[in-house]
Amino acid sequence: MWELVEASAAANPDVVVLLDGEDREITFKELRDKSERVAAGLHAMGLRSGSRVTWQLPTRIETVIVSLALARLGAVQNPIIPIYRDREVGFVLEQTNAEFFFIPGDWNGYDFNAMAERIIDQIGIELSVFITYDELPEAEPYTLPPAPTDGDVVRWIYYTSGTTSSPKGVRHTDGTLMAGGLGLANAAALSGDDVGSIAFPYAHIAGPDYLMMLLYRGCGAVLVESFNLEEAVSLFSRKGVTMAGGGPAFYQMYLAKQRTQPGVPIIPTLRLLSGGGAPKPPEMFTEVKQEMGIPVCHGYGMTECPMIAQGGPNDTDEQLMYTDGAPVTGITIRIVTVDGVEAPQGGDGEVRLKGPMVFKGYTDSSLDADAFDEAGWFRTGDIGHIDATGHVVLTGRLKDVIIRKGENISAKEIEDLLYQLPNVGDVAVIGLPDKERGERVCAVVERAPGTDDLEFAEMVAYLKSEDLMTQKIPEQLEVVDALPRNETLRKVLKQDLRDTYRDKPWAPAPRG
After folding, report:
1. Which residues pair with 147 in a beta bridge?
2. Of 378, 365, 246, the residue nearest 308 (C-alpha)
3. N or C: which end of the chain has fewer CB within 10 A?
């Protein structure tokens, strides 16, 4: 990765690569130079190749510099999105055996330093905690050892909730992340004249995906530290952003803003919306095209494989509306039926993958046997097919996971917590289609005999007391006499629940 940083600085030394809402700009050469000085500063603090670093930082120029400085050193870095709290962060710090923890201090109304102290006391780990927000350590680069040259060493660990109660650590290399970024760069067809935007957490797997695209294509992007629609639209207009998005929730927000001023583009330079992370309703493409005059180029990826398929500006409206894009450069996709044979073209089956962007297994290696088949194909757990034009069409999921605003939420984790309440006889947590969120979280609770019904406010308060992050707390609660079950093993029929509540009128209630 550092070789790519060096090459980009040499090819586009004076091109601005990162911009922000404080009207700061940094060129490719400045990014290289600053990252190298910070790497030397971190080296002086004791960080070395192989040092285990967890960082939980917001989307800002300093965060990108920190991540590249760690890449220059060859450290093993574990980015965590800022919304995670004690429960998730403690698990991750313990499983990765982190030596260093970089945090923003007090940020966005939350004291990360206090959280770090609580976690250290609770799990008893030795951990050096540093605030790396607007001031970064620097030293002379000549003090640094040579940059790492082996792109196949695992130096990145990203966590995804997956289908189990505990998060899963996903092991990546410089090479896998660069391959994902190249796939996005080729599909998005950006040029040096484009200005992208990172309005999502840079600590998400999409962060390096996007950064690699900028390095490969020699173009810049605007960073948004804390997303606010009005501020983002104003900022993107001032900076001439040509590609915005992040996922269906973002598409919906931009569309809602556009409806307040029909006929007058909210961002005059914008030429497309792009993103992924959650299902996109076909009608959303039509609405954006009709009302904003630009296409939605939706994509398909996951923490284990940052880029799988991506819609591009050269695709037809029908392809952009009904598919999740064409397979990106380097990926090979196989569709496998429940019988374990390759599905005919157009036939549904599990999506399985091979390619240079596929991860190197989980931190808990016992999970690898189920993740890969006997021939080494990664089993995504998604159901879909390849259409006649070679594009990917997703139709469902094997895994019991809810994708809310691009983040995987484990139903089992929430179910395990709610089951402990005395007025919960049994519980099933499901994802329901939601135009704003992709999916919303719905808890269907079976009444416990002789108790009062679980109230929404009671559920929210309890889950917060268990340190469950707000984004995982259900937006919807349904209380029933009995959950539907099959006749043999009495397994809860979650699809029946989805069918029951899919179209039921629903109004959001406050969770925070």
Report:
1. none
2. 378
3. C
Across 161-314, the runs of DSSP E, i.e. the strands, are 168-173, 195-198, 220-223, 243-246, 272-275, 296-302, 305-310
Phi-psi region of 240 (alpha: psi -120 to 50; beta: other; left: phi over 0): left
Instruction: For Cα atoms 291, 293, 297, give the angle at the middle one, nearest 5 degrees.
Output: 105
One-character DSSP codes across 337-349: -TTSSBPPTT--E
Sheet hosting strand 100-103, strand order edge to edge: 128-131, 100-103, 52-55, 76-79, 154-160, 168-173
Average pLDDT over residues 205-225: 96
Cβ–Cβ < 8 Å for 337, 349: yes
pLDDT of residue 491: 67
pLDDT of 268 above 90: yes
Indicate the angle between helix axes 229-239 and 248-258, nearest 10 degrees.
80
Q: Residues 241, 196: contact at Cβ < 8 Å?
A: yes
Find the helix or strand (DSSP H, E) in which 257 lies.
helix 248-258
Task: Tell me: pLDDT of 430 over 50.
Answer: yes
- The 10s digit of each residue's pLDDT in 376-421 is 999 999 888 999 999 999 877 776 678 888 887 878 788 889 988 9
Euclidean distance between CA atoms 467 and 435, whole angstroms? 27
Name the phi and psi angles at 382, rounded to 5: -90, 150
The β-bridge relationship of strands 154-160 and 168-173 is antiparallel
CA angle in degrees (0–180, nearest 5) for 46-51-52: 125
CA distance 345 to 355: 20
- Contact in structure between 5 and 31 (CB atoms under 8 Å): yes
Euclidean distance between CA atoms 55 and 289, whole angstroms: 38
450-471 per-position pLDDT tens digit: 899 999 999 999 999 999 989 9
**How far apart (Å, rounded) are the C-alpha atoms in residues 230 and 232?**
6
101 has pLDDT over 90 = yes
pTM for the complete prediction? 0.83
Contact 278, 260 (CB under 8 A): no
Q: Is the pLDDT of residue 163 over 70?
A: no
**What is the set of domains in the chain, with CATH numbers?**
25-149 (3.40.50.980), 179-397 (3.40.50.12780), 401-501 (3.30.300.30)
